[in-house]
Design goal:
Layout (H helix, E strand, L loop, with lengths): L3 H28 L5 H4 L1 H7 L1 H13 L4 H26 L13 H28 L9 H30 L3 H18 L15 H13 L2 H31 L4 H29 L1 H21 L2 H30 L2 H16 L2 H16 L4 H4 L2 H23 L17 H18 L1
């Protein structure tokens, strides 16, 4: 008999395969419409900027509705958005040569950016609901193992198979990746609809969204460790996005490679991520959760430098593998930690605030990448300007490294007082619970 968690993992595999196809499709199609780095980043910015606007409402909604139905609805929305993008591209073909400044086809570019915005908006609700649904599908003792499976499935689809498949589909017919994604999200919706169980949080007598949102802020305010983890993840995501979007033009112009090779480079990085997701729980058990996160933070500057120095496509793929290995070990430990610490009835709101801090910095990294290339182009040849974001990300990550390590280390001795701000109307037992869970975590972290 197929378990609900197995259906959930399979649906996650399909959506992440589509996400992996989209990793290549969004950026590569945008680069066929413009070579202006600052305009190029507008499409991935459209994917990420909804975290600024919708993360908090998504948390409130996730804690009010059936999370399974919310995931189902968002998968249907994304299927529609990809179908819309496919039609827009098909009508615009054949495409003209992309200019170094401006856009060759404004209306198709706007349609692609609009579809990306719709996909990104649905992703905010879908991903928040998915992470909060996991504790209802497995026991708390099995969270690391469950999250490890989900991260490995995500990486296999999102970064290993998806990018290579997306590049292959682009070579066959430019709108084909978007058609395939519409189908994949439709199939995922069917699987999610077949999951049986109760996934609506316990109802409360009063449903004031302001009180509910304040309760989430109150909880996070009482959890210094969670706040620190969110900020650290946000900086890493900012630097990662700064580097990964610059990779598109670097592969095309500096390395003179095709979309297929670009997809294989991303797939090479995914191998490191898959390994990290599979060994993350074992590493945390051997080293302690806190020590594991500290070590992964210390390794990230070297990971960014290795991408900047990597010679050729194979070298870039190996450097990405190292970077994703450290990032996914961090993710397995930090996500499991978060799911344990937060009560189920608050999980959606606190998770959304956390991800607002962690994911909300991604658009800043994307815009910074385009600005760095634009400014560097005024001082150096284009081939050097295209790798400037790699060096900028490595420099700032290294410069902030000691501060981040000190901040994370200080949280080992933090104790969360079982007190909440009275105006937030959060029941006292919630605060007591987070204090106990935090102390338990500190004991096991060594």
């Amino acid at each position: 008999m197929v378990t609900p968690f197995a259906r959930f993992v399979t649906a996650s595999g399909l959506t992440n395969l589509a996400d992996g196809v989209a990793v290549v499709a969004w950026a590569w199609v945008a680069s066929l419409l413009t070579r202006d780095a600052l305009l190029l980043v507008l499409v991935p910015v459209a994917l990420r900027v909804p975290w600024f606007v919708l993360a908090l409402p998504a948390g409130v909604i996730t804690d009010r509705v059936d999370r399974r139905r919310l995931i189902l609805a968002m998968d249907i929305v994304r299927a529609f958005a990809f179908a819309l993008a496919a039609v827009a591209l098909w009508l615009a073909m054949p495409l003209a040569e992309p200019p170094l400044r401006g856009v060759s086809a404004p209306w198709p570019f706007a349609a692609i950016a609009g579809a990306a915005l719709l996909v990104g908006s649905a992703e905010v609700f879908r991903d928040n609901a998915a992470q909060t649904m996991v504790p209802a599908l497995v026991t708390h003792d099995g969270l690391e193992r469950a999250n490890g499976k989900l991260w490995s499935v995500e990486l296999i689809g999102n970064a290993l198979i998806g990018p290579a498949l997306g590049a292959l589909l682009i070579a066959w017919f430019l709108p084909l990746p978007f058609v395939g994604n519409a189908v994949a999200y439709g199939l995922a919706a069917v699987l999610v609809a077949s999951i049986a169980g109760a996934f609506r949080p316990p109802a409360k007598a009063a449903r004031d969204w302001r009180v509910e949102l304040r309760a989430g802020f109150c909880f996070l305010k009482s959890a210094p460790l969670l706040r620190t983890m969110a900020v650290l993840t946000g900086f890493w995501n900012m630097f990662h996005q700064m580097m990964i979007i610059a990779l598109v033009l670097h592969v095309q112009e500096n390395l003179q490679q095709s979309a297929q090779v670009y997809g294989l480079i991303l797939a090479g990085g995914a191998i490191g991520g898959v390994i990290g997701s599979l060994i993350g729980a074992r590493v945390a058990k051997a080293m302690g959760s806190m020590r594991t996160m500290q070590v992964m933070l210390a390794l990230t500057p070297a990971a960014f430098v290795s991408v900047a120095l990597a010679p050729g496509a194979v070298g870039v793929g190996l450097a990405l593998a190292f970077m994703e290995l450290t990032g996914l070990i961090w993710n397995v430990v930090s996500v499991s930690m978060r799911q344990r610490m937060i009560p189920d009835e608050l999980l959606g709101r606190v998770n959304s605030i956390y991800r607002l801090l962690a994911w909300g910095m991604m658009p800043l990294g994307l815009l910074a990448s385009g600005l760095v290339v634009r400014v560097a182009s005024g001082f150096w040849p284009r081939e050097i300007a295209l790798v400037a974001p790699f060096w900028a990300a490595a420099f700032w990550d290294g410069a902030l490294g000691p501060v981040r390590l000190a901040g994370l280390g200080a949280r080992v001795s933090d104790k969360i007082a079982p007190v909440c701000c009275p105006p937030y109307r959060l029941r006292k037992r919630h605060c007591c619970r987070v204090g106990k869970l935090h102390e338990d975590f500190v004991d096991t972290a060594g």
